[in-house]
Specification:
globular; alpha/beta; seven-stranded mixed sheet; 29% helix
């Protein structure tokens, strides 16, 4: 009785709603997922689960990560803080190290009475901000490769780690032969247990595929016959692009079947494209198992679903592979939000309104009725969730290493700096006439006013060292 009185009193004086009034959160992250899914107009893709989720909520056609590399992107999203030249720099970036004292998204929900659970890859490091979870983060233990052919191709990379081929057709094996299948099984079981508790939950489930290596059971490769796979139509550097814009895709070169220098053969390039698509469909199937359990448990009227890919991925566009660039293909990623009908969120709608991943944190606060910490750099997407034609911002600002970039509805502008911090080169792409970002028009006189305006907006809006505020 005393415990109930204390909780009710806390709710009255802090504005925290009672457990029965607060929605659950199902928070799904997918590693290296570019917006190449059929619901986004890519009809060659087999992604029925993502399509089904999109039919239940709002899909953001122009959602952008803050940094196109894993740890940095996730740390920025989970803190709601912009990257800067001193934070969120690499795939190893941690929120608790780069922004000490900041209350992360999971910790904020835990502080407001939620059971917070992390399964799979949410932060890059399992130890990052671990005190924000109600229990120790869990990850599946499964071998990366399962075929003898792949095992025979293992080599040591530059850091002494064992690396196999860039993709593997696992044959007629169950989905649980790989880690994401085992994760899906555990997530389904965990979801059932959380529903039995008399408290709201924040369940975060992070799938690894389609991250390299592109390993999946044979049935997912069968969805993409080899003779149907083609190279992108812009497998060339953009005309007039500065040297800094094109990288050597070092992440991919660690794999045993990839040359250390030079271009890929067309055969290998097509293998990679097919493997990426197979791995995407494999991840989609695991998400489908989780959504099926969600339906079986009758969670539609009290559970919010957020699905996001941590950044884009290049499949030969501009001769690039992996992410790690300031091009659209590296920075654009899926974001789908579904919420109970009584929240006024529309269903089955695609929006062209711009969203940044730092907007996820404040949006979830509004959906769950929680106060928003003062440190947040993002804006709530609630107006768009209720009206897909609404807009909450005019640009998305991202960065990678020495490049800072701004995306508006029509343009992407990027400038690069040297080691001393001086601006060196720049790019401008007009998406109205050049959606593939194939011709850099920054030096054309007709765009001089556009360049000046976007540079000013970029400099005004980008993150700067030490500009975040601690919260709570």
């Amino acid at each position: 009785m005393v415990k109930l009185f204390t909780f009710v009193t806390l709710a009255l004086f802090t504005g925290v709603s009672l457990a029965a009034d607060r929605p659950n959160i199902l928070f799904i992250a997918v590693d290296d997922l570019r917006p190449e899914i059929s619901q986004f107009g890519e009809e060659h893709m087999v992604t029925p689960s993502l399509d089904r989720l999109a039919e239940r909520g709002v899909s953001f056609e122009r959602a952008f990560c803050m940094v196109p590399t894993c740890g940095a992107s996730r740390a920025s999203l989970m803190t709601g803080i912009r990257p800067a030249r001193d934070r969120f720099l690499t795939h190893l970036s941690r929120a608790d190290e780069d922004t000490p004292g900041i209350v992360t998204l999971n910790a904020h929900f835990k502080n407001h009475g939620y059971t917070t659970v992390s399964l799979g890859k949410i932060y890059h490091s399992r130890e990052d901000s671990a005190d924000g979870w109600s229990e120790k983060p869990w990850r599946a233990s499964r071998p990366t490769y399962i075929t003898p052919e792949a095992s025979r191709q293992m080599v040591k990379d530059s850091k002494g780690r064992q690396r196999g081929p860039s993709w593997e057709n696992g044959g007629a094996v169950p989905d649980s032969a790989y880690a994401d299948g085992k994760l899906a099984e555990h997530a389904v079981e965990t979801l059932g247990k959380l529903v039995e508790r008399d408290e709201p939950f924040f369940l975060a489930v992070g799938f690894v595929r389609p991250h390299l290596p592109f390993n999946a059971p044979a049935k997912y490769f069968d969805s993409y016959p080899a003779d149907t796979v083609a190279m992108p139509d812009n497998h060339f550097p953009p005309e007039g692009a500065p040297r800094e814009a094109i990288h050597n895709w070092g992440e991919l070169r660690n794999y045993s079947d990839i040359p250390k220098q030079g271009e890929l053969s067309q055969e290998k390039a097509l293998e990679l494209i097919r493997g990426y698509r197979a791995a995407t469909s494999y991840a989609d199937a695991q998400i489908g198992r989780l959504l099926f359990q969600y339906d079986e448990l009758g969670l539609a009227e009290n559970t919010i679903i957020v699905l996001w890919g941590d950044h884009g991925w290049n499949l030969g566009e501009h001769t690039l592979w992996c992410k790690h660039s300031c091009f659209e293909t590296s920075l654009r990623a899926p974001l789908i939000i579904s919420a109970p009908s009584n929240m006024g969120v529309v269903r089955g709608q695609m929006t062209e309104s711009i969203a940044e991943f730092i907007d996820v944190y404040p949006t979830l606060c509004d959906l769950a009725g929680l106060p928003k910490p003062e440190h947040l750099d993002g804006e709530t997407l609630m107006p768009i969730l209720k009206n897909p034609d609404a807009e909450v911002k005019q640009e998305a600002i991202s960065r990678y290493r020495n490049g800072d970039t701004i995306r508006t509805k029509q343009f992407r502008y990027t400038f690069y700096r040297d080691t001393r911090g001086s601006e060196t080169t720049e790019m401008l792409y007009d998406h109205r006439t050049d959606p593939g970002e194939n011709v850099n028009v920054a030096s054309e006189g007709a765009y001089s006013e556009v360049v000046a305006d976007l540079k000013q907006r970029l400099l005004a809006g980008m993150g700067r060292p030490g500009d975040f505020r601690k919260s709570e």
